[in-house]
Amino acid sequence: MRDRRDIGHTFTGKHAFLCDAAGLMAEEQVLDLGCGIGWFENYALGEGCTRVVGVESDEVRLDRARAAAPGAMFVKGDATALPPDLGSFEVVAMLDFIEHLPREQVVPVLREAVELVKPEGRLLISVPYRGLVSTLLDAAFYFGHRHYKIADVSTLLREVDCRVVRVSYGGGLWEHLAMLWLYFFKWVLAREMPGADFLEERRRREYLHPRTLPLSASATMFVEATRTCAP
Fold first, then answer.
1. φ, ψ for residue 109, nearest 5 deg
2. pTM metric for this prediction
3. DSSP 193
4. What stretch of H or E contains 65?
5. Structural fold of domain 4-227
6. What is the mean pLDDT of each run of 10 residues along the chain (231 residues)?
7. For 82-94, how does the pLDDT look when each residue is reduced to its tens digit (9 = 90+)?
8. Which of 113, 99, 188 is nearest to 148 (CA)?
9. Coil, helix or strand for 90?
10. Of 150, 143, 142, which is closest to residue 218 (Cα–Cα)?
11. What is the distance of C-alpha 157 from the center of its chain?
């Protein structure tokens, strides 16, 4: 029987949407907090980033990340206590990450992340969107998986002296249906879900058309922010 931590970890239309949303990163230094299996590191290296660092607390995911992006540097650690010698970065990414933190840790982790962003740099965040349909169809929501609206993220960013400069929304009903199907096969049957290619093609099509305004079924909100003042 396969390890549940390895099931469903593939590059999806959602990942492609987030990579596109990140914009041009050539010649930049990138830090990815909660890097998971290294998909964003692999993309950043392909874009020509000069230094790519991923931080992840799970050793199994780190092993996969190192295999996926051998040109990146990976650090096993907790985002609440980052190593003091990481340096500074043009891009600090927190993709599908802050919703998993204990609520009281979100602002401290954001503050520590912002300290690593160069004055002209960018903070990239993605979170589940808090719409009626998107919330109701997220099985993980009922077990503490938080969803956000832009007002929620803007408030958090103001607390760490950052401002939102760009927002986009992606995904929809197919994303939610695919995740429900994945959860059932991952956590109940501990195997890959059937029909994965069919579902992924429809998820990919949804994410091909990002929006600047959300729909009730929007699955993902991407936010780009900058520092409001130099350190």
1. -70, -40
2. 0.93
3. P
4. helix 59-68
5. Rossmann fold (3.40.50)
6. 45 93 96 95 96 95 93 92 90 96 95 95 98 94 93 98 97 94 77 86 94 97 90 54
7. 888 899 999 999 9
8. 99
9. strand
10. 150
11. 16
